[in-house]
Amino acid sequence: MFSLDERLLMCAGLVRNGARLADIGTDHAYLPVKLLCDGRISYAIASDINPSPLESGRATAEKYAAENIEFRLGSGLETIDAEDGITDVVIAGMGGELISEIVLKSALTKNKNLNLILQPMTKSEVLIRKLCENGYEIASQQCAVSHGKCYTAMSVRYTGEKLECGDVFHYVGRLDLHEPESVRFVNNHIKNLENRSRGDESVLPLLGKLKKLVEQ
Ligand SMILES: C[S@@+](CC[C@H](N)C(=O)[O-])C[C@H]1O[C@@H](n2cnc3c(N)ncnc32)[C@H](O)[C@@H]1O
Questions:
Q1: Cα(54) to centroid of ligand 1, in Å?
Q2: Which of these, 7, 133, 137, 212, has the minimum number of CB atoms within 10 Å of its CB?
Q3: Mean per-residue pLDDT, 137-146
């Protein structure tokens, strides 16, 4: 059996035991196959918008003799029906804007019992802002370093309560800044904002607040 890298391991850790999982943008299907073979989940739908990633996902499932996995071709959560009884959804390895579009477009995500595990590769601040504005709550969030890069993943629930979270929350979310990986992640935001501030001074107040937070 293979091991997941630290990024996918972080996502796997946020999936509930016994879940019926939908992995959206599954590509090689490492995450659902690993969780099924470890007996952590009971069923998985591995879904992707492109046929060739789905083929490599099928090959992974076949190689490791994973059972209770279905493969579906299509965009976002359009491949999932309420009758599938999905309890947990992973959307990992895509940009934050695309992840937010997928979440907001689907009526299925407006279910208070659904555990959405979101792992943006870029623009996590846009994803968090859109979640807050549309009635989704971040229940927990963490960071991991994988192949020298720092990534974040969050467990999200629909509450229906729309919140103005403020710009610092968009960048820091529910990260625990006692964790070195979380500080590294926020420092990456700070570096990007410093570059932006050379042509756009409006980001300076936010930059100051973030620097103060990581120095505490
Ligand atoms: C970089 S891979 C990430 C694979 C895996 N989730 C991971 O985190 O390692 C992104 C995958 O998302 C798929 N994808 C892109 N847009 C999508 C969409 N709107 N709906 C479903 N899958 C999508 C791509 O075809 C690709 O296989």
A1: 10
A2: 212
A3: 98
Long-range pairs, 133-139, Cβ under 8 A, ≥24: 133/162, 133/163, 133/164, 134/104, 134/162, 135/110, 135/159, 135/160, 135/161, 135/162, 136/103, 136/109, 137/161, 137/163, 138/173, 138/174, 139/174
- 143: domain range? 6-164
Residue 184 located in a structural domain: no
- On whether the pTM is more than 0.85, the answer is yes
Domain annotation covers residue 80: yes
Ligand 1 neighbours by CB, cut-off 6 Å:
8, 24-27, 48-50, 53, 75-76, 92-94, 102
Residue 81: which CATH number?
Answer: 3.40.50.150
pLDDT for position 216:
85
> For residue 145, how far is its CA from the centre of ligand 1 (angstroms)?
20
Work out how many domains the chain is built from and give that number: 1
